[in-house]
Design goal:
The structure is a homodimer. Chain A has about 950 residues and is α+β, with helices and mostly antiparallel strands. In chain A, about 30% of the residues lie in helices and about 20% in strands. In chain A, strand 18, helix 12 and strand 19 form a beta-alpha-beta unit.
Amino acid sequence: MNKKILVVNGIERTLIVDQDALLSDVLRKQLHLTGTKVGCGTGQCGACNVIVDGKLVRSCVVKMKRVENRATITTIEGIGTALNLHPLQQAFISHGALQCGFCTPGFIVSAKALLDVNASPTREEVRDWFQKNRNACRCTGYIMIVDAVMDAAKVLRGEMPASNLEYKMPADGKVYGTCYPRPTSVAKVTGTWDFGADMGLQLPEGTLQCALVQPEVSHAIIKGIDTSEAEKMPGVFKVVTHKDVKGKNRITGLITFPTNKGDGWDRPILNDEKIFQFGDAVAIVCADTQEHADAAAKKVKVDLEVLPAYMNAPAAMADDAMEIHPGTPNVYYELNVKKGDETAPIMAKAAHVIEGEYYLQRQPHMPIEADVGFAYIDAQERVVVHSKSIGIHLHLYMIAPGLGLEPDKLVIVQNPTGATFGYKFSPTLEALVAAATMATGRPCFLGYNWYQQQTYTGKRSPFWLKLKLAADENGKLLAMEGDWSVDHGPYSEFGDLLTTRGAQFIGAGYDIKNIRSVGRTVCTNHGWGSAFRSYGSPQSFLASESLMDELAKKMNMDPLELRYINCYRPGATTPTGQEPEVFPFPEMFDMLRPKYKTALEKARTESTDTKKRGVGVSLGIYGCGLDGPDTSGAWAELLPSGDVMVGNSWEDHGQGADMGTLAFAHETLRPLDLKPSQIKLCLNDTSLVPNSGPSGGSRQNVVTGNAIKAACTLLLNAMRKADGSYRTYDEMVKEQIAVKHEGSWTTPSTHMDENSQGNPFCIYMYVLFMSEVVVDVTTGKTDVVKMTTVGDYGTITNRLVVDGQVYGGLAQGIGLALSEDFEDLKKHTTLIGSGFPFIKDVTDDMEILYVETPRPEGPFGAAGVGEGPLTSPHVAILNAIDNACGARIRSIPAYPEKVLAALKSPKKSFDVSDAVAGGYMSQGGIETLKK
Amino acid sequence: MNKKILVVNGIERTLIVDQDALLSDVLRKQLHLTGTKVGCGTGQCGACNVIVDGKLVRSCVVKMKRVENRATITTIEGIGTALNLHPLQQAFISHGALQCGFCTPGFIVSAKALLDVNASPTREEVRDWFQKNRNACRCTGYIMIVDAVMDAAKVLRGEMPASNLEYKMPADGKVYGTCYPRPTSVAKVTGTWDFGADMGLQLPEGTLQCALVQPEVSHAIIKGIDTSEAEKMPGVFKVVTHKDVKGKNRITGLITFPTNKGDGWDRPILNDEKIFQFGDAVAIVCADTQEHADAAAKKVKVDLEVLPAYMNAPAAMADDAMEIHPGTPNVYYELNVKKGDETAPIMAKAAHVIEGEYYLQRQPHMPIEADVGFAYIDAQERVVVHSKSIGIHLHLYMIAPGLGLEPDKLVIVQNPTGATFGYKFSPTLEALVAAATMATGRPCFLGYNWYQQQTYTGKRSPFWLKLKLAADENGKLLAMEGDWSVDHGPYSEFGDLLTTRGAQFIGAGYDIKNIRSVGRTVCTNHGWGSAFRSYGSPQSFLASESLMDELAKKMNMDPLELRYINCYRPGATTPTGQEPEVFPFPEMFDMLRPKYKTALEKARTESTDTKKRGVGVSLGIYGCGLDGPDTSGAWAELLPSGDVMVGNSWEDHGQGADMGTLAFAHETLRPLDLKPSQIKLCLNDTSLVPNSGPSGGSRQNVVTGNAIKAACTLLLNAMRKADGSYRTYDEMVKEQIAVKHEGSWTTPSTHMDENSQGNPFCIYMYVLFMSEVVVDVTTGKTDVVKMTTVGDYGTITNRLVVDGQVYGGLAQGIGLALSEDFEDLKKHTTLIGSGFPFIKDVTDDMEILYVETPRPEGPFGAAGVGEGPLTSPHVAILNAIDNACGARIRSIPAYPEKVLAALKSPKKSFDVSDAVAGGYMSQGGIETLKK
């Protein structure tokens, strides 16, 4: 510990620092400059970028001994403030170059460092800079960020007035459908949007810091937990185990179909009898400091009997596999699709029949912000949990019984969230911090490090798929047969639901009258399955959109035209037998076709012997809503100031719930002529707002959008006088008219029947993807050089938000296709190790086209957005690889070695080791080796 | 504990707060917005002012339950930042409207709130606003603050360009002698100048919070200390008592004259055998949080035998008084002045003889920032103490033996300091935090609350004075006899030194050839005596400058002219027989005379029956330096960048050590043509810089100014090439010439002899004061309506700094004359209770004139500043009261009731109860009542 003077943001600060302390910790925990965010904590993500003596550094890996005395440090707080935005900050806002905002300060600081040394960078130089400095963004796809930097540079060079970067309200005062910047923008670009870890530093004195005890094994029997040594460690307040959990100590999956062989009560809060997967926690050490908690956690002794671990679906389905949850078969759910006639006879005589086998990997969500939250007991004696939850009411009911709480004694609040992409559809640490607070009576804070984020939160569940299509001589599809096994990890929650997505989306987009399929949910010992953007559809379309290309190839037909003749037109039905609500595909194909032809020509002329260029297309569809009837609530309240407050639980991953709520409320309330700033948002606290349902399945824009519209309409109606003018707040009070109105809305959807037939969603999103790739056939490496997409998301609520969602989805599609995986428990635990797409992995050339078909049920015609762009971009890429060089990749990611192998020996099927190549497992997918 | 959303500085923040928590704590400890300073903690000082929903509030008394959800809060951080200063901030800088900077954010926030509702306030409206909102400043005297607000308002109204507020460097690049703003200004106006409490919030995890156990009694025997119950309280790490202190457990006064009857080892670190005064600490509770420490401190049981407490010098000098320090007489030091001939014969035959008796109260320093500091063990195994110390090397040697540390194992660092005015010449909590850290091994933080600041830090020691003057028929002084008793409280440190000040300054300014006096230091049980600005001179001049007026009155002579004929001219000597180094008084009187005549005329014409206007003058003198030879060191180092770093221990109360160091270094280094920003300051860390001596006695500007000049000259000489040009850093290294040079300087002063004769200082400051007052003879209330001063401080180092020192000194003089006291242990424990001068107590009409006589020994001709303005302004006020209404006030402060009493029955002497009227004591000054 030594005195060190740092010149921080122009001001000399004297600090007492440990020479081994990290600069990021000193900035955040000592100087309380929480604008510097810590993501990965290992120097891979750039969220913590600051400028030290003119040099950009990743502060999470810089020890204080490396920071010179009197070093000059610039953090986001020193670049600009809410009252004095730097052009970079203004440009990020006006370009919508931010979503969750977690990486934003790091990007802005990084860009500042670049422009300090290069005032006129090219786009490619900007990209090179962010690549070199590892600025990672998981939300935006980078293009809008580069746009922002280029514009800010223009302003800084004096080539453009700064006012060009400010949003100008249109003359008609409209917000809906414009590029109005999201309300949280200013906080996000200034580093004052407080994420969970930031709020953790703002908790009252006496807050305990938690550390988890996680035996590093995938399957074991717990024979004993000895906390005695840990309890004696310095600063330890209590070591909490399953014995301290007052309720059932289980998180319930809630939604289980009657045919499910499990009961949904299989996920422990703190593991008591068994360890089911790597990362499972058996204890929480609560101490005065994180350092003390971490040190004591190492002293908890866990006596284990290690069992063979079944690390994928085939292994767990083997005849001799033991039941992971004793009493429940490892295949715990199975469904059938029966649509139209029996398919076997059709297959037997069809002109063209084709089949294929596919594997989609355990894609990790990789938010830059690791999971984080805290709990405390409030003045009403309720346990209040703050977390990244994207389903606050859902989670309340999932964890209350396990904790032994009546639902009215539990409150869940969503913190500003550094993205989830769906993993927070599952509760993660919510129950743990609640249990810790209940056991200690004190506020408890728990933040995962990025390793824990990766190993101990849900993942996209791998699908093992087999698919067969029959078509007539013209390519018109006649029948489909499918079989898919979902590796859902050890915990059942929503596993059955996910499995139904195969029934809904395999073959979706095409009018296939006859289907026979079977899908199943398999319990394994690998990472548990949680929601991930486009939930179930990337797996589904991997099969059907790959196989469509294979069919076209076999028929020597253009794959776009094969799709075109089969796509939904009036009279067509979905795989679940539903009539689509709109039919935009023919128009969309017509828009894409000329671009496709140009791309094909470019591929033909630009391919070389070693660098083969190819073009691939795919279509994608996703429903907006939960499966079946889906309800949301919201309220609108007239305030004494004349402003209106809108309350709902439209949880925000970063996708733009703030903007959505504002846009729908503002549009509905237009007769009141309110400025956008007059609409106040009250969001995401179960004690304050109604249940709007979780933020998943692109449902909120539709379902909660309609609920907001309903609430605001009720308020308007109450305010309206006979002469058509509107009452003031005082007039309402005087006339004893309620100023707060709750609205709700329910989809006219139905659950699917036992044949997986029904109308599960009332609105769908329709998307086309075209990918242009260059494959280096000497190395197998694929570069995606351009992505084009045509999307119909209904009317567009906010153009910046929708563009951002599309760019971001495409970037994740590139990662899904080429690099991302969570299979190897050693290798796949870092951003880089897991194949995170950095800026140079994501093409700067993306073209987005929209068809805005108003949806009859959508609020102001809107559908959803988020899931659409990630339904099948990866398949367009795989199809482009095949188009380029003839390598058909059936199990992804399409690592270079897989492409090389496919070039050498094309095959139609593959074994487990192909699918999970490079993995941690011993053969057959059963982990028996101890670390 | 509940969730609360606050819109802070334009950004919505979600916090978890206790409803009983204070807003200031939430802002500082949870949101880490430490720009909001907490001074008194009781809503009396305005340092914590913030704007809540448009209304200015004192955040230290606002509980969170009174802050509405979604309240809009503006703190200093939201007004402007270093990169984007608000016009108010710029104006405070350019007007020098800040010294220590502790009250500055509160003033700026307050002014912002005013200008938000009144864009064009008059000066009086500004003053009314600050009065109403209790913005207290102890340093500046308010005028420069009002100037700044008026100018900022002009800029905000668009009547003046903002650039007018920016400092323009003169064409010659000179800094010395200009209005260059002090280097710490920007940090101070933006709230980023981190004081001890702010740094406390930036300490590493694991820092312990300390609470003192202070039995509330003034004199007692300690029979036992039981910490067992406290040790068991939540969060308690250790309760430290005298048993844990490794060394002698005493703070040594170091400087004791051989004739002192004490040994200087009388102040315990933690009291062990006796309680000597109210506030003495017997234990330190070290806990995880302040709340826990405070709660446990209440559980320490102290078994006491209460003794009679001697609360002033007459009581302690009584024959039957017990020895407070057994074995040492209560009168522990006595000195004699013998100059010239025996005085008795002269008195016997002089034309005019006059005598008087006077009492100057225990003036409290009343910094807005209470004492605060912390300690830790550094990587070199040294105990490092950070505090408000204004004598870091001095304190090191005063506390090391008591702690049981070798001096090289102790480091003292001065934190940014919210003013001391001298009380930090004594160590306060330095030894306590060091003892706590040594006993716990952990960093320990201790902050006094304002009550502790007032009751448990040193005070200005009361003097009980008797004085007699003889003059010839023309008023020429012939002889003086004096007797003074110094109530120094229970601890001897520097008490003998203070007593010598009477020998040096009673009668100073006049050529008195024959003096016989005696002074003594008395041990009492009231607040211990520590240094206070102008140390010993306000007491000295109270006697001689009052008596000069009485003499003039008796002679029916103009009091200014009586002074004029007696003042120092060549051939005169000081009371210690020294020849003054310069003789500016005649010129100064000539400057003042026309203003004095105008004032007299104004008083004559404007007096009414009930409101009597009067004019009073006084002179003051103070030496620059410690008594006798005084040495300072400094170094200058050429850095690789070509910048020069200057190191010294010129501790800063707020008086401007930063500016002084910069000005002297810049001026000396002018051949290098450095920009001011190229001179880096390394200040106030005993491990890094040489001993420049303490910041007291206006010595630093002279002694350290010369040392800086010496160091920079050595560096210049080393850099100079044969051709007169200067070597670069690289050239120096190449030629193996040292780049770091240490300079030192020692005054050519001598210690006084046994007759108190000698040349203790080589440079003096000379000041004249004129006060114009209005006395309401119906109430006795005195208003000071104008203060005029003519000062000779040598050449002026920085005009803003010197003006600020003068304004501030005059304000403290008004408080000293009329309202300030620390006598009553119940009443005098708050700012308001102690008579703190708020803005409306301090006239807005102050006129400052300078005579700049270069001092032969001064660096660039400079003398000191700080003490000059507080030598005798209070006496000018007392003389003006007498001039107005004939009431001669002999014991101050001149409360209205005292003025009324003096009007009713004038008397020449007084008893103890007159002097300490309204006090806490029972009669005779012996506290025997238990609370």
